[in-house]
Amino acid sequence: MSEQISFDRNLATYVGIDVHPATHTAFAMNRFEERRGSLRFENTHDGIQHFLSWLSCVDGKRSNIIVGVEGRGGNGHTLVGQLLDN
Questions:
Q1: Which of 6, 11, 17, 24 has the largest count of CB atoms under 10 Å?
Q2: Dihedral angle of Cα 40, 42, 46, 51, to the nearest 10 degrees
């Protein structure tokens, strides 16, 4: 049975990621559609690690971050794997 997590959506940071074969683009905003930042990063281990570090700059409390990944095929497979590990 999975544990339900609750939090204040007014404090959440929403990060959407558009995945492509060579690079990914992330855009962060809050519930009120105020921009928190954007980042284009390489689809490599180092690029994804840079993205994970960037998340801490966007919102210092990682439990407030909600990530959505858009794309098809296997272009975001490595990214999703590292997100789940972190």
A1: 24
A2: 30
**CATH number, residue 34:** 3.30.420.40
Length of the chain: 86
* Residue 6 structure tokens: 């609750």
Q: What sign results for the dihedral spanned by CA atoms 74, 80, 85, 86? A: positive
- Output the pTM of the full model: 0.83
Half-sphere exposure of 69 (CA within 13 A, CB side): 17
Helix ranges (DSSP H) in 1-86? 45-58, 77-85
> 50 is in which domain, residue-wise?
9-85
